[in-house]
Amino acid sequence: MKPICMNNRLQSRALAFTLIELLVVITMVLLLALTLLPALAKSNPNGRTFRCLNNQRQLTTGWRMYSYDFKEALLACENGAPGNRPNWCTGSLNFLNNNISNWDPNADITKSPFWPYTGRETSLFRCPSDQSQTIVSGTARPRVRSYSMNSVFGLGAWLDKVYNSTQTVWPIYRTGTDIAFPGKTFVFADEHPDSMNDSALQTACTGAQPTDSPSAAWIIDFPASWHNGGGAFSFADGRVEVHKWLGRRIQPPVTYTGSMALNVNAGDSYVDVRWLAANTVRR
Fold first, then answer.
1. What is the pairing mode between strands 218-219 and 230-235?
2. Cβ(82)–Cβ(174) below 8 Å
3. Rounded distance, CA 182 to CA 279, Å?
């Protein structure tokens, strides 16, 4: 009986040693993965998409935290918004080398009213797929921002398709309680770099309803399409997603010149514009 017990003990020790070895191997694999994943995320298109979505998730969290601290008041996306709400990010971007807002985060981003809610991290404001830059003193400098906010949080001047800063056809949202459908109201979006100017993504909801003629759909500002033909969006309920565009008109090539025509007929992208309108605001 004793030899059998001794064998059982040896077998148990051998088994225990094998489990320890397995745990060591698992730990080493995890450490290796943690080392490699950041590098893969920087080089892999899907990794860049993941980082972009994470940026927007964190920006949206900061946007909501700001609202909680200011009695549900929402940050605006334009100067002069109703309720004297501050603009989430001032400054207009272009490709002029002498525009400090293009390349210096201290010009506008660090002065943002919700800068303290973002972890004071400038990289959150830029999609890793955005290669836009300007030349400063002979050196190429990346532009500081890739994201714009839903125009429903500002003046909503283009919601009725024709510019009107006092339009009443579509509501605008001043407080968190105004948002009728948080899961269908985007907050931040990638904007096409050649469309980027102010800090709002303007959308025309009039003409983009299911009962409207396809020819009535209009694109005011262009969302980006560099995530495998889709654009990244965050929503008021905290959700983030990449929406795949179907038409070609809404996916113009990127030239990094800012020369693209805005405020144009949607053409074959009327379905995309309808999705955009449905996730901007509803009556």
1. unpaired
2. yes
3. 9
